[in-house]
Write a structure and sequence with these properties.
This protein has 240 residues and is an all-alpha fold. It has ten helices and no strands.
Length: 240
């Protein structure tokens, strides 16, 4: 079920601007006129876009950037590993996107799977939930920027903004938000580094890197305040 939801979402993003193309991947679907080899090519093309869309058009972007800043602030180098951070960001993203994915599945994939609508109709039905989510977190300033870059006419309503404009605006907005959160996370650990560096220099321990001394204190502070719970909880709540 999850794979179907993601595929429908990918198709709605990558082909949403061409919903007038009459093709269907569902057996018995209405209005199907595209040959099976072409259907397979279109599906494989959409699947190649899946990693990029998951990384840039979902909460995954903000979460993984913040977790990277957190690891740098702690000074733990490669612990947790990249695989752990990516896995945590992916599961959190799926949790946050669950309402959007469920709505997309109910409105687009189920009727398509039953042969009640064509693929173009399914894409048209799947696009509004995705647009609603992206519009919620895309800044107006970034939307104006990409409207100017694409020379698109000003939309009458937010829902009229095309995905060609909405997706890059969402990415820029998320990067800005992620860097803001990362900067705030850095501050308490930076204070510890400054204090430890001042102490080590004052006692003449110039050959001992201050980072080696401050790292245990930063990890201890992070564990004592239950840092993972606070960071993950704040990240998830930032999308509500």
């Amino acid at each position: 079920m999850l794979i179907r939801i993601l595929i429908t979402t990918v198709l709605s993003m990558s082909l949403g601007a061409q919903t007038g193309v009459p093709f269907t991947l569902a057996p018995g679907g209405k209005g199907g006129s595209t040959a099976t080899p072409m259907q397979v090519i279109l599906l494989l093309t959409a699947l190649t876009l899946l990693p990029a869309i998951i990384m840039s058009a979902t909460p995954f972007l903000r979460i993984v950037v913040v977790l990277h800043f957190l690891r740098q602030a702690l000074g733990t180098q490669t612990s947790p590993s990249n695989q752990v951070l990516v896995g945590l960001a992916l599961f959190l993203s799926l949790t946050i996107m669950q309402p959007v994915l469920t709505e997309t599945y109910n409105k687009a994939w189920q009727p398509l799977d039953k042969g009640e609508i064509s693929m173009s109709d399914a894409l048209e039905a799947a696009t509004p939930p995705v647009k609603t989510f992206l519009l919620k977190y895309a800044r107006e300033k970034d939307l104006r920027l990409f409207l100017e870059i694409s020379h698109a006419p000003p939309p009458n309503r937010p829902s009229d903004i095309s995905l060609n404009v909405l997706l890059p605006a969402y990415v820029l907005s998320e990067l800005r938000t992620a860097f803001q959160i990362g900067a705030v996370l850095f501050l308490p650990f930076l204070v510890i580094d400054l204090i430890v560096a001042s102490v080590t220099l004052s006692v003449g321990m110039v050959q001992l890197p201050p980072v080696m001394v401050s790292a245990p204190f930063k990890i201890l502070l992070f564990v004592l305040v239950d840092g993972w719970n606070l960071v993950v909880g704040s990240l998830v709540r930032s999308f509500n």
